[in-house]
């Protein structure tokens, strides 16, 4: 049985605008074109294409607006960066424009998901056997520095953003990855303004203290789109991973956690020169099982691959070649005693339930 998959985190626009990737083309075409280029050296081989979405039954993707602060700019090719809020706004707006161009050019392959009605229409297409269907994109803002002022949130909502993660590294709203810190006053104002509009809060990159504060303060829905459990990461110490306290807070809020099949998120300290065989697909299943054991059920975990988000084929567990190979997790969950209903929930149903509950009509 092939299960419908939802992937809660992919940096598609960042890749399209940084490397010129066209996800309507096949994996083979993109890999051949990029072979031997700086792209492979800096980001690895792509793992994503519409054809692989079809093969792997990837029905919905949370597609990001993402830019890094200019202080961590890698090289001249690293164009999607910002030095201030105005620049962040411009980059994030450019990512929205890139998605709109994709929808206009390839409506049979990619479609926006902003409402329950759009979600249900998409899922109905996936219910038709042996027929190609578009992959639906839900827009997620990763790092909220593109919000120049709180009043601007309504503009982002109107343009289709449905999920906001306040941090990547530290932002003016809170601490973030490798840069600890609590919510700032602006961060509290952001959360207060997000909830009435209907935004889902993504805790993924928030520093631990900020995430715990947000769990107490935020009145809207809460998820972690792409974050692994700290205690299941070998040698794990980094604040990029979720402590048990944060996991339990997400579970209490009926949230879902997306597991990342990235070697450095399975073994902290894994390096590109290390063997892919150090990490197995079963380590991904173990991360999922850890969340399920905490929850006492299979209804709070899914995928948040972050595929092509700063890493590629060379940095994911051995046995995975493209996004379609996420289906290889199914027999590993079966071996752990999960039922078909549980597996369907983990592969995509939990995220679909979350979207049905939180998207506007």
CATH architecture: Alpha-Beta Barrel
Number of domains: 1
Work out the number of β strands: 11
The gross shape turns out to be: globular
Q: In percent, how much strand structure appears in the residues?
A: 5-15%
Helix content: 25-40%
Number of helices: 13
Task: Please trace the helix and strand order, writing H or E for each element.
Answer: EHHHHEEEHEHEHEHEHEHEHEHH
Rg from alpha-carbon coordinates: 19 Å
Biggest sheet record: 7 strands, parallel
Q: Structural class, from helix and strand content?
A: alpha/beta
Distance between the termini: 31 Å
* Corresponding CATH superfamily: Metal-dependent hydrolases
Average pLDDT taken over every residue: 97
Report on this model:
By secondary structure, the chain is of the alpha/beta class. It has a single domain, classed as TIM Barrel. Helix content is 39%, strand content 13%. The protein contains 13 helices and eleven strands. The longest helix has 21 residues.
């Amino acid at each position: 049985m092939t299960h419908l998959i939802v992937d809660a985190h992919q940096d598609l626009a960042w890749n399209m605008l940084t490397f010129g990737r066209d996800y309507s083309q096949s994996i083979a075409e993109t890999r051949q074109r990029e072979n031997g280029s700086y792209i492979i050296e800096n980001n690895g081989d792509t793992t994503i294409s519409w054809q692989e979405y079809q093969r792997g039954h990837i029905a919905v993707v949370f597609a990001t607006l993402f830019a890094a602060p200019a202080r961590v700019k890698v090289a001249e090719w690293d164009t999607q960066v910002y030095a201030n809020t105005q620049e962040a706004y411009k980059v994030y707006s450019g990512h929205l424009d890139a998605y709109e161009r994709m929808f206009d050019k390839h409506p049979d392959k990619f479609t926006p998901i902003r409402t329950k009605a759009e979600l249900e229409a998409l899922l109905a297409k996936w219910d038709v056997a042996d027929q190609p269907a578009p992959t639906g994109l839900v827009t997620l803002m990763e790092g909220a520095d593109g919000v120049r002022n709180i009043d601007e949130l309504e503009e982002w909502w109107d343009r289709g953003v449905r999920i906001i993660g306040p941090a990547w590294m530290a932002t003016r709203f809170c601490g973030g990855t490798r840069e600890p810190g609590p919510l700032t006053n602006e961060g509290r104002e952001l959360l207060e303004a997000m909830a009435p509009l209907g935004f889902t809060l993504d805790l993924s990159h928030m520093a631990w203290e900020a995430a715990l504060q947000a769990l107490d303060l935020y009145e809207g829905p809460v998820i972690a789109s792409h974050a692994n459990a700290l205690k299941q990461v070998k040698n794990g110490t980094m604040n990029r991973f979720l402590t048990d306290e944060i996991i339990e807070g997400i579970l209490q809020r009926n949230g879902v956690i997306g597991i990342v099949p990235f070697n450095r998120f399975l073994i902290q300290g894994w390096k590109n020169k290390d063997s892919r065989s150090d990490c197995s697909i079963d380590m991904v299943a173990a991360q999922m099982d850890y969340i399920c054991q905490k929850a006492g059920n299979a209804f709070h975990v899914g995928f948040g691959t972050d595929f092509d988000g700063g890493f590629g084929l060379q940095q994911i567990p051995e046995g995975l070649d493209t996004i379609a190979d996420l289906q290889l997790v199914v027999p590993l969950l079966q071996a752990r005693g999960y039922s078909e209903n549980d597996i369907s929930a983990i592969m995509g149903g939990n995220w679909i339930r979350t979207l049905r509950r939180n998207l506007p009509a």
